[in-house]
Write a structure and sequence with these properties.
This protein has 16 helices and no strands. With 469 residues, the protein is mainly α. The protein is globular. The termini are close together. The relative contact order is 0.12. It is a multi-pass membrane protein. It holds the Pfam family Polysacc_synt_3. InterPro entries: Poly_Biosynth_Transport. It is found in: Cell membrane. Keywords: Cell membrane, Membrane, Plasmid, Transmembrane, Transmembrane helix.
Amino acid sequence: MTDLAPLTAGAETPPAVPTFRSAGASALFSRGVVIIAGFGNSLLLPLVLNQRGIGQYFLAQLIIAGLATFCQLGFTFSIPSQVTDAVARKDLGRARGLAATILCFSTGLGVIVVVVVVAASPWIVEFLDPADRATWIAALPIIAAIGSLASLTAVIVELLRAVHAVRAAANLAALASIFAAAYAGLVLAIGERATLSGALFAILLGSVGSVTLGLALFWLRSANWPRSAHKPAQATAVLRETLPNLFTTLVLFGLANLDMLILGSLGSMNEVAQYGLALRFSALMVMPLAIANAAAAPLAVHARSTDDIATLYSILARVVFGGAGVAAVLYIGFAAVGYGFIALWNANYQDAYWLTLLLGLGNVLHACGGAAGVLLMIWGDQSRAFMIVVGTSAVTIILCLLGYRFGGVFGLAVAAAFGNVSQVTCFVLRARARFDVDPSLPGQWRASFASRGRCNPPVAASSEGRLRR
């Protein structure tokens, strides 16, 4: 345990650690703005863009998310394990060096991606429907730029959270999402028709603003930190630690969007539009868990680095109880009023109601797994997390193809939901085996009963009552 002890000699004063309530409130604000803007965009765009255009927009969003995931290099998960750990040990020089290295890697890869996509655009569109080529040749350069900037924004947001600037991180995360909804609202207000390029250009403006503001916020936060470090950051070590996270996030991205990839390849644009809308509705149900995990990740690393076991278990309980509870309430609420709402809004999308129920059930059960997957990736078990993702992805791919072949979009939704639940179940089992901690709803429920009447929370059954490292 000596290698995990905080530095004391010559240590600088680290940033104050926020409470989980403060961090959660900030994360809730940012995700709340994103949810409202995204929901508004999903409701407004189908009113100003035809169903084929909506399908193209959802595919463009899929490409942007894929490029952003790639350019992040897995840093959104390795930042808490590295930067927050350095802050917890009062080595602010190392935290500063790590941040600079991470930003350089993400920026450099983003530039490469933009150049490659722009150069390859004429070749890429040759594989598309001739009627869509003009649209995509104009959209692909914008998509590449948005993906690279979105990646950099996500990295900066995590850096701000890692150094406990939770309010700045929340404000930055919320900014870019406003522009697309504002564009759709403006087009509707003036009675015009939207275009794919116009919607993407609005997102691009928001992305540029987010990166500019984010760099300024992080500079203000860290400008006075020392340049010397007790343990200097090495670029090769940073890259070596994050590569398992990169592979894991890429496979996770592919698995999370496997259904849309299948529809984009085998289905029609109308199916893509229906399914894409259902994905956005069902994503709202797991958003509370994402909010809780965003707030909890740096705090969980800090608590584990300082052996604050009581705080750690409190965080894990709040994540799963809050995430699963709100997800269940949202699911029940949508089941009750969703069909009537869609019928009044746009009757052409009524199939999205049933698809949302199927996908949403998978997300509710996913929320019952708590922070299991995040813990594996921020506590040094990235390789096993990657193996789990690869294994469950292979099974899910087969099930989704069979589901779509024999059951159409509804069979696809059932298979995707099953794969979602299977993966989080494996994450929970691994967290229990590796760290002697069960972050799932049943595990934390049992722990809460076991700890009643005790002064301390339940801890791992090791000789010192501490988590396995």
